[in-house]
Design goal:
There is one protein chain. The chain has about 700 residues and is mainly beta. It has 5 helices and 39 strands. The chain has a 28-stranded antiparallel sheet that branches. It is globular, with a radius of gyration of 26 Å.
Length: about 700
Amino acid sequence: MRIIRNGSACALLLAAHAATLAQTTPAPMQQVMVKADADTLRTQATTTAIVIRHEDIVRHGDTSLADVLKRQPGITLGGSPGAPPTIRMRGLGGDYVAILLDGVPAPAGFSLESLEPGLIERIEIGRVATAETSSQAVAGSINVILRRASAGTNEIKAGSALIAGYAAAQLLAQHSARLGPLAYSLSATLRRNRNPIQAVTREEGMHPTLLRDTDWFEHQVEDVLELAPRLTWQPNSRDSITSQSYLRRRRIDNAKREVESTMLGNPTAYPRSDQGYRTDPLHGYADLAWNRKLDAGARLALKLSSFHTTRDAAFLYRGRSLDGTLLRTNAVASGPTEREWTGSGSWRRPLWGSHTLAAGWEIGRKTRTEYRRERQVDGSGTQLLTSDEDYRAQVTRSAFFVQDEWDIDPSWSAYVGLRREDLRTTGQGNAAAPVDVDAGAWSPVFQTLYRRARPDGDTGPRDGVRLAVSRTYKAPNIIQLMPRRYTVDNNNSATNPDQQGNPGLRPELALGVDVAWERTFGKSGMTSVSAFHKRIRDITLIDITQNLGVWTATPVNAGRATVRGIEFESKATIDRLAVRMNLARNWSRVDNVSGPDNRIAGQPAYSGNLGLDYSVASGRIDVGGSYTHTSGVVSRSSASIVDADSMKRQLDLYTLWKRDARSRLRLSVSDLLQQDVLERRTFEGNAPLLRATTYRVRATWRLVWEHSL
C-alpha cells in the first residue's frame, strides 16, 4: 500500500511538473542508437518468440491490446460481446496463457485491457515457456514490455470514437525529460468507453415443450482515468534503478432491459426486468527494480512489485410481469479487494565463451477478500431473503529457476532450463467450507535452433529449424476453488445455471513438443511454418448438474486431453507495400468425453489474418487494414452439454495523414463487416433444451489528432 500511495503522489507531482515544463524544456541533443530490430531479434534468439514493435502496436489506432493481439499468428479472441475478451493461443484461453508484465507474471486482477497501447514498447509472444518467466504457460505467454523513460518526448492525442451513434471521447498526454542521471516520464489517459449491446435469446425445449424469445438491450458506459509514471536513475556506470507504476480509476454504469415473448410453454417467473450495475474500481501497481553490472560480464537484478485493486459494486434487479407490475426487487452490494506483492531476483553470467548461465527466484503473496450483502423483497415490500456473506482467500507463491543458453557453433544454439513453482491457496468464509490446496510442478524446458551458416557475401534467404520440448502446468484460480455459489436472478436451467467453485480441483499438467521452420529474406521478409503437440493431464471441464431443482455449473478434472496444431506466417515488403498473412489449424480431443466434438471448449478449428499497409510516395499518408477470420466452434464438455459459437469475420481499416513532422490525424474503423455473433448451448439430457443468443455487432469509428510538442 505504501508503494502504491508513493506512486500515486509521484504521478500527481510529475503531472504538475509536466504542465510547467512542456513548453520550456529545451530540445535535447539528438542521439543515434544502433540496435537490432524486432525481426532480427526473433530470428536470432534461441527461444521461440514473436515480437510486435511499438510502431505496429499503434498502427491501427487501437484502444485495446486485445485488438492488437487478434492480428497475430495463432491468437484469437473469445468471450461474449460486452464481456472482457479472452485471449486464446492455439485455441486455449483463460489461465492457459501466461500474461507477463516486463517479464514477471502479471498480478492478479491485471487485464490487457487496463493498459493504453501507446504505453507499450513491445509485446513478446512466446510459443514455448522459459524457465526464467513462468511455467504456467500451457498455450504460451504474452510478455508486455512497458515503454521506458526517455528524454524530450511530449505528445498529446485527442479524439473520439463513434459506435451506434454514441460518442466516446479520449485524451492521452505524455511528457518525459531528463535531470542529470534521472530520466522520468508521465502518461495520463482520460477516456470514455460506450458499448451498446443489443441481443435476442431463443430457448427451445422438449419435455416440457418450450419456445421463447427474450429481447434485451444493455448500455455500458465506462469512464477511465489513468496515470502511468516511469523513472530511471543511473547514478554510475554499473547501477540502474527503475520504477514503473500506474494508477487506474474507472467508473462503470451499466443499464439493462429484458422483455420475453413465450410462444409455447410457460413464461419465466419475471418475463420483464430491468437491471442496474454501478461500480468505481481502483487499480494500482508499482515496482522498483535494481540492476547492477558485475565483473566478467555478470549481471544482478532485483525487483519488488505491489498491486492493489478494489471494486465496491451495487447491483439492482427488478423482476416484473408482462404488464410491468413489480414482482421482486433484488439488491446486492458486493466488493472484492485484492492485494499482491512479488519479490524476484536473478543472476546472469557468460561462461567459457559460449554459455550464458542464469539463475533466479520469485516469492509472492496475494490476498482476496470479498463481501456480498443481498436483500430480496416482493412487490409489496415484504422481505423474502437476507444474506450476508464474507470470505477471505490467500495464495502464496514461490519459484526458482536455472537455465543455460549455449552457442554450440555459429549455426547451432541451444537452451536448457529448469523451473520449480509452488502455490498454496487457502480460504474460508461464513457461507462456504474452508479451502486448503497445494499446487506446483517441476518444469524442464529444452529449445534448440539451427540456422545454416552463410558464406561471406551471401545475402540470400536463410533457413532455420527449431525444436522445443517443455513441461508446463495450469493451477486453478481462487474463484474456481472457492465453493461459493453465484446465482442467476431469473430462469435457472441447464443452459443458464448457477456457478460454484470446487475446492478439490487439481492443477493441469502438460507435456508439449514444438517444431518450426523459418526462412528470412530481404530486409524484413520472412516465412514460418510451425507445428505443436501437447498432452494435458487432469484437464478441467465444466460439469452441470441438478440438485433439488437447481442447476449448478462446477469445474471438475476430467482425465486427459490432446491438443495439436499447425501455424503458417509470412510477411514481406514490396516497395511501399507491406503484406502480412497468418493461418492456424487446431485440433483437440478430450479422452473421457464421447464424441463427436469432444474438443476443448472454445477452441476454433482454424483462424487467419491478412493485413496490408501502404505508404504513398510523398510519405505523408499511410493506409492499410486487416481481415481476421475465425471458424465456428463446436465443443462437447460432457455427455449432455454442447456449446457452439458462430464464425467470426472482422475487417479493420485505417488511414494516417502526417501533416508535418509533429502532427498526425488518424481515422480508423473496426468491425466494418458488422457480422452478428451467435452463441448456442444445447442440453441433451432427459429434457432437451437449447439456448441461443444472437448479438448485433456495430462498427466503431475513431478519429484521433496526435501532436508532438
